[in-house]
Specification:
256 residues; alpha/beta
């Protein structure tokens, strides 16, 4: 596989073979409901760059929830990352940040900040990526919001029916069915100032996670509401992976 990806023509052919079916596949998804927090709607309507915060396992929602021509996504500079970028370009995305949280967090953070501040692009940020623990917000998105002074828009995503939830993957990655019904929710924006972050950190470890907890709870609330709506109306074809809200202290220990 590595040798295949080193061949430019073969890589392009593989990207087309993957990208065109994916583009057709996601085109069948039907967004039935979209809800906005009033402040989120005002910011999104203004065209201001934002940081979309979402769970890694529900990345499929990006196909319907963000404007392709105004949103950048972070893609690894590796050969695998180049293939992903080519596939995403075929689907419709236009802006890519070639960096890696895993290999060089500082460089990736600088590139994300540049996209927000200088290029005036929004960015999509998986808050529990790239390797989990699942549903646990990491500090990277908080630091990016502080440095860029751009708001975080929590993004809730749900669909019914699901083709598959990959339980063996750390994020329980979801794959929607063709022609599924989808619901999106844009939560209350979270602005991060240096003063706010420093104040929470100075109060000790108990309140040091306040900003992460606030975002994490908002994401849980959004998904719980969307998932419960599908459960109520379509019990036979949908089961929520979020059966209950998990307190922060219990949650952090549940995934190691």
């Amino acid at each position: 596989m590595a040798r295949l990806l080193n061949n430019r023509l073969l890589k392009q052919a593989l990207a087309i073979a993957l990208g065109l079916p994916m583009k057709a596949f996601q085109a069948t998804w039907r967004v039935k409901t979209i809800t906005h927090h009033p402040a989120a709607k005002k910011i999104l309507d203004s065209g201001q760059p934002v940081i979309f915060g979402l769970w890694h396992g529900r990345m499929y929602g990006l196909f319907k929830a963000v404007p392709f021509n105004q949103t950048a996504i972070l893609v690894s500079p590796s050969n695998d990352g180049e293939l992903i970028a080519q596939v995403a370009r075929i689907v419709g995305f236009q802006h890519f940040i070639r960096g890696s949280h895993k290999r060089d967090r500082l460089q990736a953070a600088l590139l994300l900040k540049d996209a927000l501040v200088n290029q005036k692009l929004s960015v999509a940020f998986t808050v529990d990526g790239p390797r989990g623990p699942r549903y646990q917000v990491k500090p990277g998105i908080i630091k990016l919001a502080e440095k860029s002074q751009c708001p975080i828009i929590p993004l809730g995503i749900s669909c019914s029916p699901l083709l598959k939830t990959i339980a063996s993957s750390w994020d329980h990655f979801q794959i929607p069915m063709p022609f599924c019904r989808m619901a999106l929710a844009y939560g209350e924006p979270l602005w991060i100032s240096s003063t706010a972050r420093e104040n929470t950190e100075e109060k000790g470890s108990q309140s040091g996670n306040t900003l992460k907890t606030q975002l994490q709870n908002t994401l849980f609330d959004l998904h719980e509401s969307l998932d419960q709506a599908f459960i109520k109306n379509d019990q036979r074809t949908f089961k929520s992976p979020l059966k209950k809200l998990i307190p922060m202290d219990e949650f952090e220990s549940s995934d190691g």
